[in-house]
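Thread: Newbie trying to understand structure tokens

Hi all, I'm a second-year student working on a class project, and my supervisor (Dr. K.) asked me to get a predicted structure for one chain before our next meeting. I've only ever worked with sequences, so writing a 3D structure as a token string is new to me. If someone could post the tokens and maybe explain what I'm looking at, I'd be very grateful. Here's the chain:
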Amino acid sequence: ALFESEWKPAFQREFADAGAFASHCYSAAVERVEGGPGPQMLPQTGETVERILKSGATLVILSNSSPTKIRKWFGSMGVEISEDRSAKLRVRGNAGKFRITPSAGEISFSGRPVQLGRTQYREALLEEKPDAVIGDNFSLDLSLPAHLRSQHPDFRRLHLVLARTRYTPEWSRRSFREAGGTVEVSGLLEFADWVERTMKGPK
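---
Reply by user tm_fold:
Sure, no problem. This is what the structure looks like when written as tokens:
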């Protein structure tokens, strides 16, 4: 067994807080993937991006990863992505969705507490004011947008889209429905279908 008195001093010497540790783990995992199999992109990525842009929508990749990594990975699929704020397809990296300020409080979904203090992510959402947010992780990607929709006038008509995967837990789907999620999709092309229908619908 490893006791707190044994590991905590070493942890505190290496990392300022849990957020710094999470960031380190994430960066190390990305480095390992890129040093081995390389970029892991779904084969439908290119077609999905093309269809979404053709529908007239703007697509912003709001990622915890660096813009450099996102541009490299999309580039491996032949998709050029910009950091220019005026671009129809662009990346906004280092979102820090996992960085939490505990004092900001929490909200309960399906009986599970979810932290709201994702300060970096909140600032990005408030700047972007999206019409829709898609994510495959309810607590990380969608809980804060759901909260903003219930509290902030600029987000009252926000669509929430859950990208369902084979590893999506049932509690996440329940929380999504409880939060008034718009639609679940099972893949990128299904998301493109939804965007096309939505862009053609009533404004």
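A couple of things are worth pointing out once you decode it. Residues 114 and 139 are 6 Å apart (CA to CA). The longest strand covers residues 159-163. Feel free to ask follow-ups in this thread.
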